[in-house]
Amino acid sequence: MSINKKIKVFKWISILEGLSFLILLFLAMPLKYFFDSPEMVRQVGMAHGILFIAYVLGAFLLYNAMNWKWKEMLIILACSLVPFGPFYVEKRYL
């Protein structure tokens, strides 16, 4: 797979992972705790978990191809733990 194709796939994973995290935090969790409706947390949480793993694996796959330094790699991985972080990675490092 070409580097441009890898970057394009990682951008989509990054965007989807960021959106799933925001939906989980700002929609599903309030529904669970304020309205006693945990169903959405289960569904969105599973999707977010899969996307999170794909994001981390994608970052490691791009590490050599993008010539990222370890500091950059740690920032990219840390951004997956922060709301809006994946959007920053997409704009800054891709």
From TrEMBL:
<dbReference type="Pfam" id="PF12823">
    <property type="entry name" value="DUF3817"/>
</dbReference>
<keyword id="KW-0472">Membrane</keyword>
<feature type="transmembrane region" description="Helical">
    <location>
        <begin position="73"/>
        <end position="89"/>
    </location>
</feature>
<dbReference type="InterPro" id="IPR023845">
    <property type="entry name" value="DUF3817_TM"/>
</dbReference>
<keyword id="KW-0812">Transmembrane</keyword>
<feature type="transmembrane region" description="Helical">
    <location>
        <begin position="47"/>
        <end position="66"/>
    </location>
</feature>
<protein>
    <submittedName>
        <fullName>DUF3817 domain-containing protein</fullName>
    </submittedName>
</protein>
<keyword id="KW-1003">Cell membrane</keyword>
<feature type="transmembrane region" description="Helical">
    <location>
        <begin position="12"/>
        <end position="35"/>
    </location>
</feature>
<feature type="domain" description="DUF3817">
    <location>
        <begin position="8"/>
        <end position="93"/>
    </location>
</feature>
<keyword id="KW-1133">Transmembrane helix</keyword>
